[in-house]
Amino acid sequence: GESVGLHLPTLSVQEGDNSIINCAYSNSASDYFIWYKQESGKGPQFIIDIRSNMDKRQGQRVTVLLNKTVKHLSLQIAATQPGDSAVYFCAENMREYGNKLVFGAGTILRVKS
Amino acid sequence: EAEVAQSPRYKITEKSQAVAFWCDPISGHATLYWYRQILGQGPELLVQFQDESVVDDSQLPKDRFSAERLKGVDSTLKIQPAELGDSAMYLCASSLGLAAILGETQYFGPGTRLLVL
Predict the structure, then answer these.
(1) pLDDT in tens, B14-72
(2) A97 φ, ψ to 5°?
(3) Contact between residue A2 and residue A101 where contact means Cβ atoms under 8 Å apart
(4) Residue B2 burial class via C-beta count within 10 angstroms: exposed 0-12, middle 13-18, buried 19 and up
(5) Other C-beta atoms lying within 10 Å of the C-beta of residue B19
(6) Do the Cβ atoms of B108 and A45 come within 8 Å?
(7) Minimal C-alpha gap between A17 and chain B (Å)
(8) Contact at 8 Å (CB) between B45 and A100?
(9) A36 contacts on B by Cβ (under 8 Å)
């Protein structure tokens, strides 16, 4: 399943499928990006980050892709599990605002068993 | 694993009352952040400290909100008087403190859920 960005805030996928969560960031000067996972009633949890000198970075079951040309960021989760159900936020580091992290509105990921 | 601690986890208060939230960052983290998160939205920065100094409080409603980090370690965020619109999750985060040079990862605490009646 694939979301088309923050305009569709809920993504439902079947357990075991791959998930792709998209994010359109606003500032072409942003040089650092982070994906956070937030479960209900908890604070955001760091998942993976990427700097603007990279196009791709891989972690355990997660991959972040950065397309600076169109200011687009995506998070890919392989073999999605029920424990992946949460809200996912992308955040961009705005250097001209004192390296402030600015968060997007989030995408809800629901994993169906 | 080191974590950011926050208390209380939940707070219910009546409007016009005073409330205070406490945060203890990860040991050794020089930068501390307070965010407000309205349900269904991403966190929004209220105030950022570098050690004991405020480096950004441009989004802090200073007529009713105050924040301090007197010894450069733990921090308190206060609201007085609380208003209905202050109902939200208040998140504290910390980072090593190299953000002046590079963007860096912020680690969040569990948050304080505030309900103003």
Answers:
(1) 999 999 999 999 999 999 999 999 988 899 999 999 999 998 999 999 999 999 999 98
(2) -110, 35
(3) no
(4) exposed
(5) 19
(6) yes
(7) 25
(8) yes
(9) 108
